[in-house]
Design goal:
By secondary structure, this protein is of the alpha/beta class. It contains seven helices and nine strands, in the order ββαβααβαβββαβαβα.
């Protein structure tokens, strides 16, 4: 079924070759690379090597996503990591929402990850738990494009497969259980108001990870998709400062 749907315009993966410092950039659940491309381009402009993989089943059609598992999404991000490993000595990982969850996963399982920058990352979303009670329901309403700036739209699915929600619940549980394994520096962005991932996730991540250097940075003027929202430039600037200070 994967071949049935073409990749949507602006949902393609992106790669920028630069110096020996690599940044792995991950989009979120039901979203696409469009949400992270402005960051990727800014980091490339600063001279870094950047990889923004398209997570399997994303950026095509929600029926395509329905056929994928959280292990497929991990494999997609690992593929990007290996692409960077061939070109870089130092690798940072950043991601939005589930992309932030995957950034945490990478730090838990790849000790050579230099530092992580999760943005509104998810490790517990209680409102999703009721999918286990649903019977005969295949799709839920869309969760994409939670953006304060009404002039900006996220390229995300108009429906959310119930099966995919079950998969992200497994991923979050897996990542949450291993947070203490993370010891690398972490810059954790969190929107004050988020209608998809409860902001308490950021505090939980901050408190649970084993990193000595960890910072919570509040985003005052953005909703969930902060990378496309009013605080986009703040995320870019603070991330570049953070990278520079940890190299």
């Amino acid at each position: 079924m994967s071949n049935q749907y073409p990749v949507l315009k602006d949902a393609e993966p992106f790669h920028f070759e630069g110096n020996r410092i690599g940044i792995l950039v991950s989009h979120g659940f039901t979203g696409s690379t469009q949400s992270m491309r402005p960051l990727g381009e800014a980091y490339a402009q600063a001279g870094y090597t950047v990889c923004g993989p398209r997570l399997k089943g994303h950026g095509t059609h929600y029926e395509d996503m329905e056929q994928t598992t959280y292990k497929d999404w991990i494999a997609s991000i690992e593929e990007g990591y290996h692409w960077l490993k061939e070109r870089c000595d130092t690798i940072f990982v950043t991601g939005l929402s589930m992309g932030g969850t995957l950034a945490l996963y990478m730090a838990e399982n790849y000790p050579d990850i230099h530092a992580i920058i999760p943005i509104n990352a998810a490790v517990t979303v209680p409102s999703m738990e009721n999918v286990h009670e649903l019977r005969g329901v295949r799709y839920l309403d869309a969760i994409g494009s939670d953006i304060k700036n009404s002039e900006v739209k996220e390229l995300a699915y108009e429906k959310t497969p119930v099966q995919s929600v079950k998969e992200i619940l497994q991923l979050m549980e897996k990542v949450r259980g291993d947070l203490t394994k993370i010891t690398c520096p972490a810059l954790i962005f969190v929107s004050d108001e988020d209608h998809v991932v409860p902001p308490v996730n950021a505090q939980l991540i901050h408190d649970e990870i084993g990193s000595e250097r960890k910072t919570l940075y509040p985003l005052r003027n953005s909703y969930h998709v902060a990378t496309l929202d009013y605080d986009q430039q703040i995320i870019i600037e603070k991330t570049l400062e953070f990278i520079e200070s940890t190299i």
